[in-house]
């Protein structure tokens, strides 16, 4: 009778033991990166350190560079990395971001494709160090002056439709006196967020590769208003062993 009881107990505990083994594979010391981000000038590396059976601390380093801003050849034009006003010119240079995220996994399941899948929720913490170049020595753009003279007559009216079409769009009105030897400033716009997603791995324990797909929302404030910025997340990774 005692052997039968022990056998029944072992059978009852078997699913829990198997799930614990699968969770140890899911929540293992591992490395991951987004393989698509280098296409837009971003490189990153994340290292996951298990803290509990289903929880982990994820430490990452992310570098954002202007190298892939192909519009910088025409520096007098306004693009999404520069900003002009009558008082100041700013251009974004780079960001180095430290991430300290905390993740909680749900139970491991097998999807219809035969992969092991674990759902997760991650609290996101981003500490970026952002470098901007700027100048407050602003002048009127000579190209804008030429455009204005070609487009408008002395009364301030458009000279003619033909002149308007020939002159093209208006150049930026104010530019720095020189694009060289700009001043630099550093900002640290801390961000917090939340990510939900799924981590997928092979059922074969010998295969250490995995991938993660999720949706994150970063929260911040602009002019006293709170906003949420949604971001699609994707990573490829490798378990340490």
Description:
The protein has 241 residues and is of the alpha+beta class. The chain has one domain: Porin (Beta Barrel). Helices cover 17% and strands 51% of the residues.
Could you outline the blueprint of secondary structure elements for this entry?
Blueprint: H1 2-26, E1 30-33, E2 42-52, E3 55-65, E4 82-84, E5 89-110, E6 116-135, E7 138-140, H2 142-151, H3 161-167, E8 174-176, E9 183-187, E10 191-201, E11 209-222, E12 225-239
Rg, rounded, reads 27 Å
Text of the CATH class? Mainly Beta
Number of domains: 1
What proportion of the residues is helical, as a percent range?
10-25%
**Major sheet summary line:** 8 strands, antiparallel, barrel
Quickly give the CATH architecture.
Beta Barrel
Tally of strands: 12
Order of helices and strands: HEEEEEEEHHEEEEE
Strand order of the largest sheet: 1-2-3-5-6-10-11-12
- Give the rounded overall mean pLDDT: 82
Give the amount of beta strand, in percent: over 45%
Number of helices, counting only DSSP H or I runs of 4 residues or more? 3
**CATH topology tier name:** Porin
Q: Spans of 5+ residues with little confidence (pLDDT < 50)?
A: 5-18
> Which structural class do you get from the secondary structure elements?
alpha+beta
| Anisotropy-based shape | elongated
Cα distance, first to last residue? 42 Å
């Amino acid at each position: 009778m005692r052997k039968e009881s022990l056998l029944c107990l072992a059978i009852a505990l078997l699913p829990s033991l198997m799930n614990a083994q699968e969770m140890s594979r899911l929540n293992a010391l591992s490395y991951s990166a987004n393989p698509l981000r280098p296409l837009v000038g971003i490189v990153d590396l994340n290292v996951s350190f298990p803290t509990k059976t289903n929880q982990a601390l994820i430490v990452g380093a992310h570098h954002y560079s202007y190298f892939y801003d192909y519009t910088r050849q025409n520096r007098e034009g306004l693009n999404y990395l520069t900003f002009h006003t009558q008082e100041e010119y700013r251009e974004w240079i780079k960001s180095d971001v430290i991430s300290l995220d905390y993740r909680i996994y749900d139970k491991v399941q097998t999807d219809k494709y035969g992969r092991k899948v674990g759902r997760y929720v991650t609290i996101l913490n981003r500490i970026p160090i952002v470098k901007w170049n700027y100048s407050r020595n602003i002048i009127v753009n000579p190209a804008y002056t030429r455009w204005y003279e070609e487009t408008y007559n002395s009364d301030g009216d458009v000279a003619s439709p033909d002149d308007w079409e020939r002159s093209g769009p208006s150049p930026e009105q104010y530019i720095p006196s020189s694009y060289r030897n700009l001043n630099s400033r550093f900002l640290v716009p801390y961000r917090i967020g939340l990510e939900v997603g799924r981590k997928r791995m092979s059922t074969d324990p010998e295969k250490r590769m995995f991938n993660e797909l999720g949706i994150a929302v970063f929260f911040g404030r602009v002019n006293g208003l709170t906003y949420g910025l949604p971001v699609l997340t994707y990573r490829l990774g490798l378990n340490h062993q």
